[in-house]
Amino acid sequence: MAFETIIVDIEDHVALIKLNRPDALNALSQQLIGELQEALESADANDKVRCIVITGSEKAFAAGADIKEMSAMSFADVNLSNLFAEFGDRIQDIRKPVIAAVSGYALGGGCELAMACDFIIASETAKFGQPEINLGVIAGIGGSQRLTRAVGKSKSMDMNLTGRFMNAEEAERSGLVSRVVPAKKLMEETMSAAQKIAEKSLIAARTAKEAVNRSFESSLREGLLFERRAFHSLFATEDQKEGMAAFMEKREAQFRDR
Ligand code: CAA
Fold it and tell me: Could you report the per-residue pLDDT of 109-140, keeping only the tens digit for each?
């Protein structure tokens, strides 16, 4: 597939998707959104891929939706195309684990894209923010919802209302990112995490992802019931037999996704 705004590289069962609009700090243009969706869906359907990583450049993961493209849009344009909301929904529907590796700016739609991934590994230079308020609008791909679930009401209100940025240290302290690493180590650490995930049973990894995501959609009792049923169902897999046998035989498990 020939993409112009992203670069896709598949190696050792990990699909690395790099946002590539350096002149616009990886702003999410309609073309980039379309290409990213296509790449994600293709990686999700590709048997060779077991984990997906999305990253940007050193200066910017993504500085938000493309303001130049959006500036002339009317209510009807935004409402009828439903581009941003649909984008958020489609990322959420990816079944394989997706990691965001964030360096530099992750603002507006960029922050929302990172939050739609399963977890975020940040470089010390990362800056997160929902500055849409400065443009006379609000977040449109989940920034008022996912950020609130990640960092709580007070910080989310602060960021959505003042438009201030959160640095990597604050983001880790607040639970927005899973780890912060030195800038030079960002890709090494992220690819190593992706590799670890790629070695697991894909059935178990997908089920773990579904179960964690379920906690955002349900009461505790419903979520626990979902987890229990999912846990029971994994005992029907060959990978469960292999994983437990490998532990007892003191060897590495060889999962076959069966
Ligand atoms: N859309 C379009 N172009 C963008 C952009 C964006 N979101 N962010 C940066 N750019 C462009 C700049 O216009 C500039 O291009 P030119 O050289 O052609 O002028 C280039 O990228 C470099 O940017 P700066 O010169 O501004 O770089 P800087 O280092 O001085 O500042 C920054 C960096 C603080 C990130 C600043 O660019 C900025 O504030 N960007 C906008 C951030 C923002 O408001 N994001 C929210 C967008 S709305 C949204 O995302 C809605 C939604 O939820 C769906």
Answer: 999 999 999 999 999 999 999 999 999 999 99
Name which of 33-47, 84-98, 203-217 the model is least confident about: 84-98
Catalytic residue among 112, 116, 168, 208: 112
pTM value surpassing 0.90: yes
User: Whole-angstrom Cα distance, residue 91 to residue 44?
Assistant: 10
Q: Is 143 in the pocket of ligand 1 (CB under 6 A)?
A: yes
- Percent of the chain at pLDDT above 90? 93
Degrees, nearest 5: CA angle 7-150-56: 15
Judge whether 54 and 9 are in contact, CB under 8 Å: no
R_g of the chain, CA atoms, integer Å = 19
**In degrees rounded to 5, what are phi and psi of residue 110?**
-70, -40
Please tell me if the CB atom of residue 24 comes closer than 6 angstroms to any atom of ligand 1.
yes
Q: With contact defined as beta carbons under 8 Å apart, do 120 and 146 qualify? A: no
Which of 194, 205, 204, 193 has its CA nearest to residue 15?
Answer: 194
Q: Is the dihedral of CA 143, 145, 146, 147 positive or negative?
A: positive
Beta-carbon contacts of 24 under 8 Å, excluding residues fewer than 6 positions away, are 63, 66, 68
